[in-house]
Amino acid sequence: MLSLRRFLLVTLAIVACAPPLLAQGLPLTMTKSFSPSTVPVGGTSTTTMTVTITNPNGSSVSGISFSDTYPAGLVPDQVGAYTCSAGNATFNGSGWAFNNVTLGANASCSVPILMHATITGPITNTTSQVTGTGVPPGGPASATLNVSPLSIPTLSGWMLIALALTIAAVAAMRLGSGAR
After folding, report:
1. Residue of 35, 55, 37, 78 lying closest to 134 (CA atoms)
2. What is the mean pLDDT of residues 68-80?
3. What gap in Å lies between CA 179 and CA 90, rounded to an integer?
4. pLDDT at position 1, please?
5. Strands 135-138 and 108-117
6. Residue 133 DSSP class
7. What is the spatial distance between Cα 175 and Cα 156, in angstroms, rounded to a whole number?
8. How many other C-beta atoms are found inside a 10 Å radius of the C-beta of residue 56?
9. Do residues 134 and 59 make contact, with C-beta atoms less than 8 angstroms apart?
10. Is there a contact between 114 and 96 (Cβ–Cβ < 8 Å)?
11. Would you give the DSSP letter of residue 26?
12. CA-based diameter of the chain, in Å?
């Protein structure tokens, strides 16, 4: 009986001190935003789309990967200065991807991309999940850009009259100076 008791105490001590077999960290998180979040349609009206990855763990996470495919109507103009130390960053006309990124403990990094919209209405852009070595998948991140039609300014009745009088005066001066 004494040996069984000793066996149980030793077994309990081993189990209590052993690290968990399936220990994993917290999932990485991603956020995405557009600034400004509303723009008129066209290449001269731009917005900055920013994706931020955060590592909430107390140790570095390596092998971080994710991708982002641009939806119809969203066109990249320029990749900004990103703060992620990318093992492999690929940017193209249809999207972008990061592979083998390492992110320190409790750190975050971001990727800004200057973009413009070619269609009106809400355009939602969503990333893939973000994965990393030793942590569960996180994400995806999503944001919506609101694109309004290009507004053409209109003139009031009085402004149209003033414009017509100005044009008539300029034409009269030119005609008068050409007659001499």
Report:
1. 55
2. 92
3. 67
4. 53
5. unpaired
6. T
7. 28
8. 16
9. no
10. no
11. P
12. 131
Kindly give, in sequence order, each residue whose CB lies less than 8 Å from that of residue 69, ignoring residues fewer than 6 positions away. 94, 95
CA distance 31 to 46: 20
Least confident of 14-23, 67-76, 82-91, 111-120: 14-23
Distance CA 46, CA 51 (A): 16
For residue 74, what pLDDT is reported? 94
DSSP structure class, residue 11: H
Residues in contact with 72: Cβ distance below 8 Å, sequence separation at least 6, in sequence order: 119, 123
For 100-131, give the secondary structure using H, E and C: EEEECCCCEEEEEEEEEECCCEEEEEEECCEE
Could you list the beta-strand ranges (E) of the chain: 29-35, 38-40, 42-54, 61-69, 74-79, 88-92, 95-103, 108-117, 121-126, 130-132, 135-138, 142-148
Instruction: Return the ∠ at Cα 100 (arms to 99 and 104), rounded to 5°.
Output: 125
Class of domain 26-148: mainly beta
